[in-house]
Amino acid sequence: MNILDHLLEGEGVEQRETPNRGGHITPRYLVFHFTAGASAQGSIDLLCDPASRVSAHLVLARDGSITQLAPFNVKTWHAGVSQWEGLSGLNSYSIGLEIDNAGRLTRVGSFYRAWFGGEYPEDEVIYARHKNEEEPAYWHAYTEVQMERATLLARLLVREYNLKDLLGHDDIAPGRKNDPGPAFPLARIRSKVLGTGVDGDNIYRVRAGMLNIRNGPGREFDTVAEPLPLDTRVALIEKGDRWSKVAVVGDDRTTGWVYNRYIELV
Ligand SMILES: [Zn+2]
Q1: b (16+ CB within 10 A) / e for 216-253
Q2: Does 98 participate in catalysis according to the annotation?
């Protein structure tokens, strides 16, 4: 993917113009949302309907395809009443990315139901506590390809517009909004894209030629990935006497246990 004249281009990217737009902006943030809708197409239609008075710059479907509804230097109507770092009305300062996801779900017997009646099986559901709430709840899971494309989009937009931060709608309108919610790995994407959220004191380097990473603290446990090459950076999650749990930096999906002797503080 690529950005040319404030428009995204690349495989699986389409343009459609929404009439729900304002004047020129210089974006400083990317704001993530879930659509809380039944389908990407339904959400795109809604965001392009003049009667809805809502829009966003991008809609990311569950299969990873992306529809852009307005150039990135034009205001869209995704944030509503919102505040961040002394600014209010974040539509004037941000790019809005809507991700096709049903949002919060309610358990009904063996399946899970969205507010609009859609029903989802257990393997599409995450039980987690929202950062602005007290109790855990059920949330529609994002697809792997959505999380990959969201990360890639964030990287592209941060580079193109020198964005200061990646935010959730639930960061800029807490209490009023709960998207993208706890099923979305915003902290992980922020740390990947902005290099934040990882404590510098916790970064180790692999000092063995090839270091096995296992699913438990001992040689009897299976490896979880290919051995880590020399100089791989890992972030410490849990320090043990002989074995420590680590996450591979830049690939936090890979976590596991490594033998302490073969890692050292950077
Ligand atoms: Zn939202």
Answers
A1: ebeeeeeeeeeebeeebbbbbeeeeeebbbbbbbeebe
A2: yes
